[in-house]
Fold:
Amino acid sequence: MSSPLTAEAVELIYTPTRADVVAALVARARKTRQARVMRWLCVYTTVMCLVLVVLKAGSGNVPGAVPWGLLAPVVAALPAAQRRSSARQALKRLAPLGEFRTVVSDEGVHAAARGLERRTAWSAHPRYAEGAELFVLLTADRSATGLVVLPKRGLADPADVDRLRTLLDRNITRL
Structure:
């Protein structure tokens, strides 16, 4: 990595895990309109399926209620299944890269791993969300398709969490 670690920069060294990817996808889902609409539609559809089960069973048509009863848990599980599938795909791409060394500075984010070196300007990820275990940088588009994951466990010192948060607050918008 060619960029020097300045006093204002924060360095993270970590190997991406499934938990990192899932937590990032959950954080993104909480902050994007598209995910909130999808979650609402799943809840609405599940409730409607259950209402149909009750109505069919109440009218004595129990066999007709069975398909609706089976559909409700399937619809309710869709968001979690989609997150698991996305996490599996992302981890499949990240695993061969091994350990990441990421430097966050006022210039942006510079990540390096086996066979990868990537510089990201703040304008590419102008928003971020913080979770218990990580920071997630999000793109400006409504679906936040691109994201950068910064696991807190990659920081050398617990005080670096506050330094990183301050650096992010100075350069991008917290959601």
User: Anything to note?
Assistant: The CA atoms of residues 3 and 71 lie 53 Å apart.
